[in-house]
């Protein structure tokens, strides 16, 4: 069981204690310095809420997929929808961080809100996360 607000003393299922604020140190470490303050603030705010949403979705998808309790956790069509939403969320996090990395590589602070093509942000993200290509991250992102 996933608990959204109150946690029993010995919960029987997946529990996440993360809040959006818990993601800020990680985001501060991966969002490059030098972006316009407003850009950084909006990016951090959007991504931290997406990340908490990903945790909540995983807390429902994983027990359903593994049938830990020997029974379904979700109505199957809802599981498919959550899985899709999870994928979109992961893609959004990658796009946000990749775009920030590309902006800084162009010495752009993002204040003018330029459109960044997928080839540019994916390339910047891959260069940072998988420079040797050992994870095939470029292929997986595309």
Characterize the structure shown.
The chain is mostly helical. Helix content is 59%, strand content 0%. The protein is globular. The two termini are 35 Å apart.
SSE order:
HHHHH
Question: What is the gyration radius calculated from CA atoms?
Answer: 18 Å
How far the N terminus sits from the C terminus, by CA atoms, comes to 35 Å
How would you sum up the major sheet? none
Mean pLDDT: 87
Proportion of strand residues: under 5%
Percent in helix = 55-70%
Number of strands: 0
Judging from the principal axes of the Cα atoms, what is the shape? globular
Secondary-structure-derived class: mainly alpha
Helix segment count? Answer: 5
Low-confidence regions: 1-5
Topology (elements, then pairings):
Elements: H1 24-30, H2 37-66, H3 76-105, H4 118-129, H5 137-141
Helix pairs in contact: 2-3, 3-4
Which terms would index this structure?
single chain, 142 residues, mainly alpha
Tell me briefly what this model is.
By secondary structure, this protein is mainly alpha-helical. It is 59% helix and 0% strand. The two termini are 35 Å apart.
